[in-house]
Amino acid sequence: MAHVLNDRIKETTTTTGTGNINLAGAETGFETFVSGIGDGNTTYYAISHQSTTEFEIGLGTVTDASPDTISGRTNSNVISSSNSDNVVDFSAGTKDVFCTLPASKAITLDHQSVVNVVGSISLGDSSNRVILSKGSDNQIQFQTEASGQSPVTSNSGATKVYADISSMTATSPTTGDQAFVSANSGLYIFNGGGWYKIATVNTSPTISSPSSGANNTLATNGTATTIELVGSDTDPGTTLQNSYAVTTGSLTNGGGTTATITTSSTSGGTYTSLSPSTNTTNRFFKVTPTTNTSHGGSFSLTFSMSDTISAATTVQNFTLTFIPEGSAVFDGTGDGLVSATSSNLSLSTGDFTIEFWVYPNNLSSTQLVTDHRLGGGGNDIAVFLDTNGKVNLHANSSTRITSASAISASQWKHIAVVRSSSTTTLYLDGIADSTTYSDSNDYGGTAVTLGKYYNGNQFELNGYISNFRLVKGSVAYTINTASGGSTAFDGNGDALTVPASADFAFGTGDFTIEAWVYSTTYANFPYIFDGRTNPGTSSNAPALYIHSSNTINYYVAGSNQISTSYSSYQNQWTHIAIVRNSGTTTLYLDGVSAGTWSDSTNYTDQGPLVIGRHGDSSLATYCLNGYISNFRIVKGTAVYTSAFTPSNIALTAITNTKLLTCQNSTGTITDASSSSHSITASGNAAASTQKPFKNYFTVPSEPLTAITNTQLLTCQENTGTITDSSSNDFTMTVVGNTAANALNPF
Q: What's the rounded mean pLDDT across residues 415-441?
C-alpha cells in the first residue's frame, strides 16, 4: 500500500451516514479513484454535498470493488469537516468526491522562496528516524524515534541535561562536553579529566507569600482586600518587577465592574491603578469590590514576580457574593402583615405604582396579596389571585381587571398596578394586560395589609411576597408603547401572495416559520399559509391550517403530520411556530410544544407562498377570518429548540431570515427581510393597526430601592424582623406565623 496523490480525480456519491463512501463513477473530464490512485492505496479525499453545507476532508483507502469505495473514515483520519473536524453523518443527496492536498499537509515556498512547513520534517522510516521541528521556545528541536517508541528530544547543542551531579559523573564524556545540572542550576564542562562548574544559570525568584490557590472572599460593603507579595531572588544585582493578570473569570459582571486593582509601594501609601500585565516595583496590590449587587462575581488573579528573565507566580481566587434578598412567608392560616397607619399611604386621585413579586404555593383558593383601604368597602384597592391563577384588580368594591393570562404555583411573578392619567393598568412580568380600567377613584386608604383581608382572617395567601413597593404620585417605570401592526383578512378570499423563490425551498435542513395569528372563526378550514407549488399534488412543501373541528394542522406530503387542539385559542392572539431542528419538526403554540414529527422531507417546492388562504385560488373559502402579524421565515436555522416565551416586541430580520411581513399598521404590506420579496394583496387583505404586542416595561433583576415618592418598601429581609425600607420607616405588624424568609426572585 502506498500513499498516492493525482490530478483530475473526481466522482460522485449518494452515500449517507458515516461509513464507507460508495463511488458512482468519474465526472466528465475526470478519472476514477481506482484508475488514478490505485486499488489499496491511500489518498487525501474531499467530500462536498451539492445541496447542503456538509463537507469532509480526510485520509482514506481506495478499494476496487462493486462499487468502488473509499474506506477509513474515522475521527482520527478526518482533517477538516463541517462536523467540528469529525466524521460527517452525511444526509441524503448527491455529493462530489475528489482528490485533494489539504493545506495543512502542504510544503510551500513564500514570495522570498523560503520553504514553509506547518508541522515537522521526518528523516528515515518508522523503524528509526530523526525529526526536525520548531520547539515551544521557537528554537530548533531535534528528536529521535526508534521502532515502537515515542520520540525523544535531543539537545540541539553539545549541552546535556542531568537531574543531579551523580547522574552527570556516571557518564562517559569526551573533552569539551557541556552539561546542565537541574538540581543546582549549574553549568559544567568536561576538560578530559573531570567536570568543572563554569557558571550558575539564572534562578527564578521565589514567592513566599501569599501561597498559591488561596481563596479570598470580598466584602459586600466595599472593603478592599490587600495582597502583599513577599519573595526573593538569589541572583545578585536584580530588581524584582511585579505584575498581575486576570486568569479566570472577569473583573466585570452584569454590565458593571466587580472589582478594581490598585497598587502601592507601601501598605499605607497612595494606591494607583495598574493595567494587567504591567510591571511595577510596588509589591502591594489592593482589590476593591463594588457594592452594586448586580455586579458580584468570581475571578482569579495571577501575581508575578520577575527578575526580567524568569518569574515566579501565585494565583489568588476572589469571590464577591451578596447575601440574597428575601421575602415574607405566609402559611395561609391567619398570617398577615400590616403597615402602620399614615396619610402618606393615601393614594388620593393621582398617579401611583403598587408592585411586588408573589410566589403562591398553590391556587386552591382565592388569595389576597395586598388590600389597601381606610375602612370597610368604599374606595379600596386590592390585588388577589383566583383559583384559575388569574390576577385580579379589585377597586371601589368591584373586580375591575382579571388578567388574560394566568400565573403558576411555585413560581415567582412580578405584578404591578399602575395608574397614569386616570387609567389603571395591570402588568404581569412587565407586560400590560389587554384590559385597562378608567380610574378616577379617590383611594383614601391609610394602611396596607399584605397576605390577607384587611378585616379578619379571610382569603389568606399561602406563599411568599417579596419587595412590595408603593410609589405615590408617579409611575415607577418608563412604559414602552407597543408598536407594529398586522394584516387583516375578512375570510372572503383574502390572501397575500409571495412569488416563488428558492428562499422557500428548505431542502433537508433546519428552518423556522412563525407568526402571531388571531382567528375569529374556524369554519371552512382557514389556512394560515400554503407553500405548495401545486396545492393539489405537491408533497414537498409545508402548509398550516385550522380545521373546522377546532384543530390546527401541519400538512406535508399529503397528510396532517402534526395535529392538535386549537379551540382555546380562538378570538385571541396566538404565537405559532413550525421549527425543524435536526430532523424533528415541532409545532409550538405560545412557546409550548403541541406536537412533533420525525421529518426527513426534502422540501424542494419554491412556492409561490400564499398567506391567509389555501394556495389554490379556486378554494377561496379556505381562508382566514382574522389577523396575522409578524410572519417570519428563517431558512437554515432552528430559532427555537425548546419551550420559549414569545417576544413582546416586533420580530427582526435575524441571520438567515428570508421573509418578514405582516408588520405594517397602515399602507403597503412589505417584506422587511433582506430578500425584499414583492407581496401582492388580494381581496380585502390590508394592513391593520391590530397587533399582538402590549405596552411593557423592563422588570428589575435586582432588589427594589426607595426611589422618589416611595411610601412603603417591605418584604426584603431574609431573616429577622420585617421592616419598611422607605424614608417613612413604618412599623410592620406581623399577624400569625408570617416571617422573613430567604426565598426571593433574584
A: 95
